[in-house]
Amino acid sequence: MHIISRRILVIFGFAILLSVAGLALAQTPPPASNAAVTSGQDQQTPTGKFIQDLGNRAIGVVTDKNLTSAQRSAQYDALLREAFDLPTIGHFVLGRAWSTATPQQQQEYMKLFEDSVVKIYGDRLSFYSGESFHVKNVRQESEKDSVVTSEIDHPGGEQPTRVDWRVRQDNGKLAIVDVSVEGVSQSVTQRDEYTAILQRNNGNIDALLNLMRERLQKPASPKSSAAQ
């Protein structure tokens, strides 16, 4: 995995944290001091409220001092799997190779992919350091998809980071299918990486699966080692 700066890890990790809270919108607790906020008509749209409430509850999980590290990770795992449409993302990320994979390879890949997403961003929990965010606007892109634009505000007055959330409504349920940070799609980035791995291995899907297994077995890097 590429070594990147701590600030980038914070941005990506916090972006995911803001989008992994539970979906019981009617039971959302009162906003905390650094909770997500929206204003105007965007607050009234289903997708705008969805992201706002996700942010409020996700920050609550991260900052709850009564939770042990294991409890926090377990709650994060459950919330992430609920809020993201991981099967749709995983299928997209594998690209054309999905159609050439056997049913057994498809099944193993999807499990490894979901576990990898949970591990990668679960490892980022320790990077949270008081960032907050606010929803800027919501735009409808298709019958099912909307994009919610938000900004992450960093402690110390650094320039805010733009984060776009692609939210899909399917069978009455909202779920996130992509996150773009400063215009960079995480789904497309991951797809490009997997495509490059497959190309280096002559399209051998087992080589990709082996690499995914190896990454899952590696312990999380210490927080200090991410700084550059």
List the helices and strands and how they pair.
Blueprint lengths: L5 H12 L28 H18 L5 H15 L2 H9 L2 H4 L2 H20 L9 E9 L4 E9 L7 E10 L2 E9 L2 E2 H15 L4 H13 L11
Antiparallel strand pairs: 1-2, 2-3, 3-4, 4-5
Helix pairs in contact: 2-3, 3-6, 4-6, 4-7, 6-8
Structural notes for this entry:
By secondary structure, the chain is an alpha+beta fold. The protein has a single domain (6-218), classed as Roll (Nuclear Transport Factor 2, Chain: A). The protein is built from eight helices and five strands, in the order H-H-H-H-H-H-E-E-E-E-E-H-H. It has helices at 6-17, 46-63, 69-83, 86-94, 97-100, 103-122, 186-200, 205-217, and strands at residues 132-140, 145-153, 161-170, 173-181, 184-185. A five-stranded antiparallel beta sheet has the order 1-2-3-4-5. Strand 2 and strand 3 (161-170) form a beta hairpin. Helix 4 packs across helix 6 (103-122) and helix 4 (86-94) crosses helix 7 (186-200). The protein is globular, with a radius of gyration of 18 Å.
Spans where pLDDT lies below 50 across 5 or more residues = 1-12, 18-38, 223-228
Radius of gyration, Cα only, in angstroms?
18 Å
The strands making up the biggest β-sheet line up spatially as 1-2-3-4-5
H/E order of the elements? HHHHHHEEEEEHH
General shape:
globular
CATH superfamily: Tgt2/MlaC
Q: Which architecture would the CATH scheme give at its second level?
A: Roll
Which structural class do you get from the secondary structure elements? alpha+beta
Round the mean pLDDT to the nearest integer and report it: 77
Number-wise, the strands total 5
Strand residue percentage: 15-25%
State the CATH class: Alpha Beta
**Number of contiguous helices:** 8
Major sheet characteristics: 5 strands, antiparallel
Distance between the termini: 15 Å
What percentage of residues falls in helices of 4 or more residues? 40-55%
What is the fold-level CATH name, i.e. the topology?
Nuclear Transport Factor 2, Chain: A
Number of domains: 1
